Amino acid sequence: MSTKLARWTINGLLLAGSAVALFPLAWMLSVSFMHPGDSGSLPPPLLPADATLANYRTLFLRIGIGGYLANSLAVSTAITALSLAFNLMAGYAFAKLRFRGRTAVFRALLGGLVIPAQVAMLPLFLLLKTLGLVNSYAGVVLPALASVFGVFLVREYARGIPRELLEAARMDGAGEARIFVQIVLPLLRPIVVTLAIITFLTAWNDFMWPLIVLTGQDHYTLPIGLASLAREHARDTELMMAGAVITVLPVLVLFLALQRYYLQGLLLGSVKR
Amino acid sequence: MNRQRVAWLFLAPALIVLGVFFLLPVLGALALSFTDYDLYALADPRNVRFVGLHNYGALLHRPEFWAALGHTVYFVVVGVPLSMAVSLGAALLLNSPLARARAFFRTALFAPVVTTVVAVAIVWRYLFNTKYGVINALLAWLGLHPVDWLGDPHWAMPTIILFAVWKNFGYNMIIFMAGLQAIPAELYEAARMDGASPWRQLRHITLPLLQPTLLMVAILTVSGYFQLFAEPYVITEGGPLQSTVSVLYLMYDEGFTWWNLGSASAVAFALFLVMFAVTALMLRLSRRSLREGEWA
Description:
CATH class of chain B: Mainly Alpha
Radius of gyration of chain A: 23 Å
CATH superfamily of chain B: MetI-like
Helix content of chain A: over 70%
Oligomer: heterodimer
Number of helices of chain A: 13
Strand content of chain B: under 5%
CATH architecture of chain A: Orthogonal Bundle
Number of strands of chain B: 0
Number of domains of chain A: 1
Largest sheet of chain A: none
Largest sheet of chain B: none
Mean pLDDT of chain A: 94
CATH topology of chain B: MetI-like fold
Number of domains of chain B: 1
Number of strands of chain A: 0
Helix content of chain B: over 70%
Radius of gyration of chain B: 24 Å
CATH architecture of chain B: Orthogonal Bundle
Distance between the termini of chain A: 44 Å
Number of helices of chain B: 13
Low-confidence stretches of chain A: none
Order of helices and strands of chain B: HHHHHHHHHHHHH
């Protein structure tokens, strides 16, 4: 009897918690299909009386959110591809190649994690201004091309590669670049997927730095474009919800598809830090 | 010799990026914080003057800085324990042998973590609207008075804290689940044999054994929460009556609205120092409590 009660309580609480977690997202989706102004009636409706795509049409045809979407896709993809390459190379070197100062350099990198990224943002803006890169895609992409977290994650994983495997390849006369591409990378596949999805999601959701470095609409990513729309169209609830859906949906779908890899990376990255 | 060169070639791209776009700017920020770099200097660098610790001294006399620090500390002190409690509660529920459909519940509870802060912060703004918001409609349905969530200076920060808890608890939930699974099941079996209630099992087995995880999560969450920016920027724009201006919000405003990059850098470093001190203090206190625990 008591176990039955406990089972009901536990699953009931889980159900309630999930409802609270999902409600804002469900509401966002529902309101995005309402006619302009409909969500403002009292009591607030939960479902559209007459579903419409009007808000999405306005966003794409009149406001040009497609441009923001394209910018977000381009910037996030570039960051993911390039930083993946850089972090993989560095993480592998820290794990498997011997060189003077290896421990010291790695310690220094980890020490850098203490410093919040925002400390660097003011001079970084001046630096990019000098380079003529303010309000450009490069301004968003360049600073994100390597991350201590990524290097660390790869190093942790790459340490499991047997040394004999690499030595054998060297005996056979394979160059270091070939060893990396043909032997190491295939072994690192799971962590490559993990790091790719984490990097993509982080780049997609990033707000403060793009807000600083992107000064004109043409280069806005979705979060920046959405934040600026929200100030202009504060009263257009339905329109803003459609914009939020467009921003959130790609990352949510990506997460659902690759959830296992994402959660694994989250654990690897935090448990040992 | 050749091996050394290969290793550095592998490291070079990442180290150059981190050096040029992180290390160099951090040092630059420190240097900048000792100057009066402002709009005039932006136009012509010859206008920069070295002012020593003046920016820091001025900061200590600015009520806005103390207010921003106060709001941020409020957010951290209330938000972190609340987030961690919800995360731990969710992890305990999910970890219970009685839980059904675990994969579904885990995904549902984690979903807010991967969403874009800006987008869901906008959703929050409408949900908590005083007149048309769903939350106040719910309160009315329960027979409670409506709350002016985002218009009342006393309620704006709590609303942002609720948002942060909703958005972030899933992250630590996953870490706690891993920590819970590492606790040997025999301990609970032995406790049950001795007739220990679930509450006593939690207090005497789960929490003590989870302590290292709790400490790590606390430190990471505290430093994350000190970096509050996007939430007030989108939900309240710092208002009402400046009641949700955080330290980073102040830095952003000072630096990129008023172009006082010198004093904005001092704000950034002040935040860094506060975060560093708090983290060090947490580590120290936890070490002491661990030691006392061993003697007890």
